[in-house]
Structure formats: structure tokens, C-alpha cells
Amino acid sequence: MSDTIVIIPTFNEIENIEAIIRAVFSQEKVFHVLVVDDSSPDLTAEKVKELQVEFPERLHLLQRQEKTGLGTAYIAGFKWCLDRDYAYIFEMDADFSHNPNDLIRLYNACHIQHADLAVGSRYVKGVNVVNWPMSRILLSYFASKYVRLITRMKIHDTTAGFVCYKRRVLETIDLNSIKFVGYAFQIEMKFKAYLKDFQIIEIPVIFTDRSKGKSKMSGGIISEAILGVISMKINSFFRKK
User: Fold this and answer.
1) Cα 194 from chain centroid?
2) What keywords sit in the KW lines (predicted)?
3) What is the distance of C-alpha 101 from the center of its chain?
4) 72 pairs with which residues across the strands?
5) What's the whole-model pTM score?
6) 125 near 51, Cβ under 8 Å?
């Protein structure tokens, strides 16, 4: 039994899923993987089931009936993990934009440096993004600056989706109260942890845009992130920590 599990949400990731699973399992530390699949038409879940024969104790699959957003996929994954004995719970994309070799660095930030939440950060030391167009880099970079200004969180990469949580963070946050489903979900989770005074550490990573498959970014997701931050901050004034 491992104390760590990596949640990988998927929708049409058949081109990446086997490679990313094998890359996680090739690390020196033993990580488990939970794939949360939203009924991918490309049969991503079927490939995971095939791999479960090879990795019966380490690879897990949670299938959902419909695609209802990144945030709800992670919430379902968090609850699944909290029903088991995992002490460290990770978020990671399936498309290799997050380097599996950095998993141990995030783990060490929590396990050795005593962070409650470790963020794989693109912006804590300059801008470490590869293969994005300049327009998307600027949008992401200034979105994080905007969120930092509004929320007062001392986090450079507030929209980062490469994260390690200590179990007690997810046990303390009311997961049922999380409102956002797109990339604003990442902001909201960090903000909730910040309001609870958990220690957050940013670990510099290099983010590399996917080479296979299709990006899930959309205008609606971006709007949710920009507008949602203001309402999230206002609501925080009326709630006790």
C-alpha cells in the first residue's frame, strides 16, 4: 500500500493515457494512480482497464456517466481517495504538460518541508512554459497576477493544476461547497486552503504543452476564472474561516 495517489482526470486521452500511467509507475517512489474518466468516446477507460491487469494494486479507475467539468472530476476523485488511507493526494494532467519526474519534488515539499499544499508552479521563477503561443502565456500569466491581486494569496501560479495535497487539507475543506468546475476550480481550492491558514509552497516546474490530443481550454472556462474570483473574494468576507 502506498501513501500517495495521483488523480488523473481524462476525457478523450487515449493517445496519452498508457504512457502517462507508465511514466508515473516508473518513478523510484511508489505512487498509485486514480484515473477519473468522463465516459470518453475514444475508449480511454477501456485502455485503463487493460492496464489494470498489469497493475492490479496500483491502478484504479473511476468512471463517470457524463462530462461535467474538471472540478467535479477532481472532487469525485478526492472523495474516492479520502475513503481510503492515502496521506498525499496529487492532481496531474494526462497529457505530459506536467512532468511525472516532478512528482517526487512535490511530495518532498509536503513530506520533508512540511507544506500542507505543494504547487507545481510555472511562474514562481520567471515564466517556465514550453510550446504555448505568446497570447496564451500572457493570458495565463496575467490571470495569475490578477487572482493574486484580488485574493491577496502569495501564490504566483494560482491556476496551476499540478498539486500535492496533504490529506488533512482535503478533509478540512468542505468539498461539497466548491462551486467552480473549470480552471477557476484550481483557484478556489487554493483560496480555501489559504483561508484555512494551511502552508502553501510553490515548487518551480517547467510546463510543456501537450503534443498529442486536444486541449480542453475554452472561452467559458476563462470567463469563469476571471469573473468568479471577484465573487469568491466577496463571499469570503461574509464567511468565517
Assistant:
1) 16
2) Glycosyltransferase, Transferase
3) 16
4) none
5) 0.90
6) no
